[in-house]
């Protein structure tokens, strides 16, 4: 009788064995709503375009259709945990991708371990995700705080430079400053002050004044380095307070195009970025730029490239493993190299962090362009950055 049921199921295309006719189920668990909604939208657009690109438009891997289930974290850790558990348990997804927020990602990591299913973190940044809070089911295509920090330290740090930081008071900001502090130690620059502000801060007057007081008597070249994600970006507000009165220059890393409108007031500013559509030269980025411009009448943004990279990693891993079995995927993905809009990425075996290029830029202003344009000074390739392993392996 069991043979008859199995034969009937196969005849109907239902499938009773993994890898035959069953769909490949992927959950994209991200902040569809909330303060980082723009980041989430870009990430999802890039993810779906990446699946299309990596499958040659078929949205299939080895004859199996790809099914993507979206879940909204609302940027709340408890909701994110429940959404991921529902995806693994009730929806029986093979793999999950997300989220946007570092604090939310940290809440999701134990769920992946509990269900023994892979979570590809994209684009949350905090070092602790692939550091002290990491487990073997976690991979990350997004850059981490150390990659940001080392790249920006290269851009800003040198003998005779004094720096203060302003960052958001949660995992993204604090991990970012910690990594930046460590990276600066090798450059000869001095980090003399750290200021942290709540993510919903509207008035930066007190924070800026503390930074000014910390830097104003320094006789070296002086920078305020800002690490900020989402709304309420303080760059424009602090620039309006005229830090140049004290010889203080504002510096920051790359960001989405909307946030980089504030960069037009900072011509010549240097920093490092994860992605800008005009910088990488490779087939995946050429396709992304062309298709995104045609479909949305705008270039792909910061997190669009990240979402596409995660999708390419998913497809490459399943194709190479020949399976959606978790253990087979982990074995395949440890050390796996794959081509993205940023060029080659490699999942480091020790912590599953994707090693990747970063880009030292200098801002150029073009009156015909709405944002400050980050022109490439130097590509920092995988080999140029010594990214610490922080998970104890």
TrEMBL record:
The keyword Nucleotide-binding does not apply. Residues 24-364 form the Leucine-binding protein domain. Coiled coil: none annotated. InterPro entries: BCAA_transport (IPR051010), Leu-bd (IPR028081), Peripla_BP_I (IPR028082). SUPFAM superfamilies: Periplasmic binding protein-like I. The keyword Transport applies. It comes from the Bacteria. GO terms for biological process: amino acid transport. Keywords: Amino-acid transport, Signal, Transport. Residues 1-21 form the signal peptide. Belongs to the leucine-binding protein family. This is Substrate-binding domain-containing protein.
